[in-house]
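Section 5.1 Outputs to date
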Amino acid sequence: MHAFELKGAGLGFRRELIPALKAQVPPAVDFFEIAPENWLDLGGATGKQLRGFTERYPFVCHGLSLSLGGPTPLDEVLLRRIKSFMHQHQLSLYTEHLSYCSDDGHLYDLLPIPFTGEAVKYVAARIRRVQDILERKIAVENASYYVAAPISEMSEIEFIRAVLEEADCLLHLDINNIYVNSVNFGFDPSAFLRALPGERIAYIHTAGHYREAEDLIVDTHGAEVIEPVWALLDEAYQVHGVFPTLLERDFNIPPLAELVPEVARIAALQKKWQPQRNVHSHG
């Protein structure tokens, strides 16, 4: 395990941002998130640059291509490479999407898993296998989706709760994805948030999206976070407590200076809900 404790407000670690981060990591940024697939086997200058940051700041690993709900066998070769990458950079937490993105080749989009009892068992067994290989609990992220799975025996919230229970894993809570799905499928985001098992939350994502129509939002991570999503994050802290929270920006990436105010806003919300007694604790 890393000596670094994951806390506060974070930012996705992107190559475009490295020059600015090398000049100075803004005080608002407490930790970074990295997609291991984009950095595996990177030697030379880029590998060295990454090492310079992982030695000084907490990092979390957020996987993109494991396809936990997919029909094809788990990519255990990739998992072992991720395990050695995590060991090399002393990273303690790995998360993945609760969806599938491959079917004999990557589809490069995250698709919904049917919300059925059979799917719960299938996905949970795959998560347990990942945990066995990585020798640690992982966290799975509630995914955004646009087409309801053809067969459903339960709601999305029931499905998520059942998978977390059956796999005995953690939750990587994505606030924007709750909001996106609530608009696309017409449910109450606040009720969904409150029904999640707060004791399993590892950390939180917030992000921007693209509104295609009144009732269709596309989860792009390519824009600023909107007010209803900030309000939902505020509510998450109120209901479940304060967790490390990361601003996700995957494309359309502005200069670092333009991202910092959003990271600072996360930190300000955390401060608002942080119990005073924690200020003096050593936990």
